[in-house]
């Protein structure tokens, strides 16, 4: 499962990219406006830092508008992915863009049937929103499990990009389900690496190392 950062913040992206484990970036209009920068400039800058897929979302709500924006976004970088919402107009735009060889991430997916539609439209990714389903007392990870199972049975090539992940448990469950990618905020990405036993274990190793060294120095 590829690990994506769900952010448009360049500092966060640079920091995690240093780890060598960053599979890609997802953005959305909410995340982009927080950065107070020109959308195109920002996406191009992100695409220079990250070699994997970087999604940029259309904001038109009609098919023609989405197609216009999507075709433009697709020219910004080789690794840019056009993000379209899971609406009738979004599906029509996804079908047309996919036929033209443009990779589309169909976003705001909340059911297996919506995911099937995205796959039939030729989407490169479909993004089920785990956390937002949990917020309304549903099991978001169960949806990811179900979509992965159906896509496997049906032989769909569309990749499942688990989104709206709110904590490390979501990441583990989506990996167990067989999601192709998981996107998470910076805070959650940082939580993946942290363990108190790693910190205390390292501290102990270094203390032992230092006292052995100073013992050798005293004897010598
Ligand atoms: C996915 O591509 C979305 O940008 C994102 O995961 C939404 O997450 P949220 O529900 O935490 O806003």
- Principal-axis shape equals elongated
CATH homology superfamily: Aldolase class I
The hetero molecules present are: erythose-4-phosphate
Mean pLDDT: 97
Can you lay out the helices and strands and say which pair or pack?
Elements: E1 2-6, H1 10-17, E2 22-26, H2 29-34, H3 39-49, E3 54-57, H4 63-73, E4 80-85, H5 88-99, E5 104-109, H6 112-120, E6 125-128, H7 130-135, H8 140-154, E7 159-162, H9 168-177, E8 181-184, H10 186-193, H11 196-219
Parallel strand pairs: 1-2, 1-8, 2-3, 3-4, 4-5, 5-6, 6-7, 7-8
This protein binds erythose-4-phosphate.
Structure, explained:
The structure is a single chain. The chain is of the alpha/beta class and 220 residues long. The protein has a single domain, classed as Aldolase class I (TIM Barrel), CATH 3.20.20.70. The chain contains 11 helices and 8 strands. It has helices at 10-17, 29-34, 39-49, 63-73, 88-99, 112-120, 130-135, 140-154, 168-177, 186-193, 196-219; strands at residues 2-6, 22-26, 54-57, 80-85, 104-109, 125-128, 159-162, 181-184. It has an 8-stranded parallel barrel, surrounded by 8 helices. Strand 1, helix 1 and strand 2 form a beta-alpha-beta unit. It is elongated. The termini are far apart. The mean pLDDT is 97. Bound molecules: erythose-4-phosphate. Erythose-4-phosphate is lined by residues 6, 26, 28, 107, 127, 129, 131-132, 163-164, 183.
How do you describe this structure in short?
This protein has 220 residues and is an alpha/beta fold. Helix content is 55%, strand content 17%. The protein has an eight-stranded parallel beta barrel, surrounded by eight helices.
